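Hi D.,

Good news: the full-assembly prediction came through. Inputs first.
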Amino acid sequence: MGDELKSNIAAATSSERLSEFDKELLEKFRQEDTRNYAFNLLVREYQKRLYWHIRKILIDHDDTNDVLQNVFVKVWRNLSGFKGESQLYTWLYRIATNESITFLNQKKKRAGVPLDEASGFLGVSLQSDTYFKGDEIQAKLQKAILTLPDKQRIVFNMKYFDNMKYEEMSKVLETSVGALKASFHHAVKKIESYLTGH
Amino acid sequence: MSTIKNTEGEDPFDLNSPLSSQNGKNPFRVDDSYFDAFSAKLNNVIADLEEIKEEAPILYSIPKYNPFEVPAGYFDELPSLVQELVTLKQPRFSIKEWILQLIRPNFAFPVAITILIAAAAIHFIDKQAEPKTEMTADMSVEEQLYPIDENVIVDLLNENTTETESKFSSPDETITNYLIDNNVDENSLNVDINTIDHENE
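Then the structure:
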């Protein structure tokens, strides 16, 4: 067996397996006397990763905070039913992504923007955001990313900023690896084109 | 003599210290597959970057960092905030928990006993109450009057008779009394009555 194949299999199996931390956490959550403790550990462990994932989708901190809290409430209600068939963070990312898209669609409805249109209107949030510390070129990059359709934008962020593997993204977004690769490729082309023209 | 101490005040060169028992072994551990996964991941990242460098040189030239910030102390406060939120939204008793609780022998047995005792008590009270009602209905007037003193009954009967008499005294007597009280002459009344009769004829 070739070295490359061997390492790919190892990587794949490690990504399928629940980590020892997650196993212990789930065990503790299932026991009533340690449930709150386990949940608190989960929040502390995953809050930053989930926050940044949601923040890149919604841009605004307050919106992100609202959605993140909803995500954790959903996790609390459904964690007992989590069977450990995927990594815990893959499951958490899926909830966070779905909640963010739902929130974004509601926001689009209120703004009278068609649901299938890019969320360019979030650029206003970006300009008025007191928690944006990027320089001019970073602001330009973020505006370029906001011209992408929402799902493509999520794919781009997960791949470009979070260095997530396509296989993991496929589980989170329930999309084939091939479609994700194509989506990322198109996203890169569009962003480059925006940066060249502005 | 060694003067090096760790934070616990232990001398690592002391043969009896916990640190010396490590015998130079690395105390840290990682998953067996960690290094394989790490190199695979690193290769993927490098390959992606190379691809971006070729396809999108401007994007590649922009420093890759997170330009967003959070309010100070946000991640320190969030866990307790979330904990409060889930405690508030937590239903006090779910139907499932109720059913499970009812099935448990240490709960189900006393509940069953209590229900049985309550049912038996209700049945007993009903039995006690039923004959009393029937007996009252079936008893004769004489039987019902038996425990009451005879004098009391006589007095009551006398009182009732007087009242009845005064209420239903003859109408003639009442009219006479009225005429006397109002000083009306009986003869003059007779004259008046005769006049009315003649007029009618």
